[in-house]
Amino acid sequence: MNATIIDAINDALHAEMRNDDRTLVFGQDVAESGGVFRATDGLLAAFGSDRVLDTPLSEIAIVGSAVGLATHGFRPIAEIQFSGFLPPAFDQLVTNASRIRWRTRGELTAPMVVRTPYGAGVRALEHHSESLEGAYGHVPGLTVAIPSTPHDAKGMLISAIRDPDPVLFMEPKHVYRSLREDIPEGAYTEPLGEAAIRREGEDVTVVSWGAMMHKTLEAVDNLDGVDAEVIDLRTISPLDRETVTESVRKTGRCVVVHEAAKTGGFAGELVATINDEVLLYLEAPIERVTGFDIPVPLLSMEDYYVPHPPRIEEAITKTVSY
Question: Per the database record, which ranges form the Transketolase-like pyrimidine-binding domain (predicted)?
Fold first, then answer.
C-alpha cells in the first residue's frame, strides 16, 4: 500500500477497530466529517455511531471520558483537533491518566491513546501550530510518541492502541500528505521507546523527530564531506538513551533539531543525558537548532521561526569544524 502519513493513520485505525471491539474513536468532528484532516474518514460508515462519536468542543471532557472508558475495559482513541488545544486537558493527562496505575497499585490501568496533530508549517491561526512535546514528556507514566514516516505512523499507532498505559500520539501535520512510501497491508507494530537510525555516519550525530526529521535529512544531504549519523527519536518518553549515547560515543559531536522553543525544549534533556553518560567522548559543544522563545508567528512568518536546512547545515558545520 502506497500511503501518506494520513493514509497510514487511517489504515491503522481501521485495522485495530476491526481487530478489537473494545476500541472507540471520538473527538470533535471525527465522525460525520472524518476529522479536520480526514484521518478518521470512513470509520463511522464502517463501525457505526456506537464506536465512532462526535463530541462537544471540550478537550478536558474528551480526555476525561477516555480515562473513564480506559479504566472500565475499553481502549479509547481520542482526537484533539490541534495540539494547541490540548492544554485544557493537561489536568486529565497528569492527574489521572498517567498515574492511575500507580495510584491503584496496578488494580486499574488506562490503555488509551490521545491523537493530536502538532507543529507549524501549514500557516494556521493561533493555537494551531504549537510543539509542546517537551512538556508532555515530563509527565511520568505518559508515553509521548511522534512518528515521522507513514510506515512508523501506522506501526506506532497500532502499538499505542495496544499499549496497556496511556499514549499521547503527536502527529507532524506539516508532513501529513507530503511524504509517500509503501507500507504493509494489515496490522503490524513498531516499538515505542526505540529510536531509529535514519542514516549511519562517523563525524557527527544529528538528532531530531517529527517534521524536522525531513529538514534534517535534507540538510545532511546538502553538506559535502560530512559523514553525519541521523537519529529519529520517534518517542520522546520513554527516551531511547542508549541509541543516542552510543552514537555520540562514536562520533564525538552532536546537533539536536526541534521546532519547539529553545528554552525548556526537549533538546535540553538530550544535552543533559549526553553530558551525564558520554561527556568525556565529546569533541565539541552540542549545538541546538530550534524555534525561538516566542509564540509561533502567524501565517508566512512561520518560515522565519521553523528551523530550515540552512540553519541546520550551519550548526552541523560549526560542530564538525570546532
Answer: 3-178
Span 2-182 CATH architecture: 3-Layer(aba) Sandwich (3.40)
Domain 2-182 and domain 196-320, same fold? Reply is yes
pTM of the entire predicted model: 0.96
Distance CA 70, CA 76 (A): 6
Domain ranges across the chain: 2-182, 196-320
Catalytic residue among 14, 72, 127, 128: 128
| Fold classified for 196-320 | Rossmann fold (3.40.50)
Catalytic annotation present for 128: yes
